[in-house]
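Practice problem: predict the structure.
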Amino acid sequence: AKRRDTTQIMRMHKIFGRPTYEFTNKNINFDGRFHFILALQGRIAGLEIFFDAATGEIRFRSLKHGDWQPVIWLDGVRYEDINKLSFLTNDMIARIDVYRT
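Answer:
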């Protein structure tokens, strides 16, 4: 299983290049976070992450580019809408790759 995971990640890097930011559940603290993406707050330069309490959605804002939407891959799978993934916990995620668009 480990070799297959590495092969999938290498294939992803071949297509998209190296991720701008790489995180694992070992180097990021998910504990006590309502949404796993909030654990990335302050770890991605120039990106502000907001939780909208009224709608329950996560929004991104770049200090330079306004509404900048990073491309987020979880365990080698690309997700367009991270708001649909609020149920994920630290035990369910092995790796997060973030690409600047």
